[in-house]
Design goal:
With 126 residues, the chain is mainly alpha-helical. The chain has one domain (5-116): lambda repressor-like DNA-binding domains (434 Repressor (Amino-terminal Domain), Orthogonal Bundle), CATH 1.10.260. It is 40% helix and 9% strand. It has helices at residues 5-21, 25-32, 36-43, 51-61, 65-70, and strands at 88-90, 97-100, 113-116. It has a three-stranded antiparallel β-sheet with strand order 1-2-3, with no helix packed on it. A hairpin with a 6-residue loop joins strand 1 and strand 2 (97-100). Helix 2 (25-32) crosses helix 3 (36-43). The longest helix is centred in the N-terminal third of the chain and has 17 residues, at 5-21. 17% of the residues are buried.
Length: 126
């Protein structure tokens, strides 16, 4: 079983940050509301990450989520311009398109995304 390069790189960053911050797998699992075994699967790259997982990890580490995704530290503090919804593309879930609209902006109050979801016929609860 081969990991997608992005998943492997993100998993490596999460493991490195956990070690650097001095957290145990059990502490991370508790923060994420999952078992230690599930957390170990994420950190080893055997599971793909949800937005919530990445957001909670970044929050626990005291870093921006973009640092986990790209390995780069956001540097803009006054403003950022994203033209025509062309944010940082993030491949997460098959059929969905995610674009982070403030990837280069540090100290964000929120994580602005455009999410394009496939239309599903017969989903009458919307």
């Amino acid at each position: 079983m081969t990991m997608e390069p992005a998943i492997a790189e993100i998993a490596e960053r999460i493991g490195a940050m956990r070690d650097l911050c001095g957290f145990t797998c059990e502490e991370m699992a508790e923060t994420l509301d999952i078992t230690a075994e599930e957390y170990a699967e994420y950190e080893s790259g055997k599971r793909d990450f949800s937005f919530t997982f990445l957001y909670k990890c970044a929050d626990k580490f005291g870093i921006d989520m973009i640092e986990l995704l790209t390995g780069e530290n956001p540097h803009l503090s006054a403003c950022t311009v994203v033209r025509g919804g062309n944010g940082l593309p993030i491949k997460r879930r098959a059929g969905f398109e995610y674009y982070h609209l403030a990837a280069a902006f540090k100290n964000k109050l929120s994580e602005p995304f455009i999410v394009i979801a496939p239309y599903s016929e017969g989903n009458g609860d919307c």
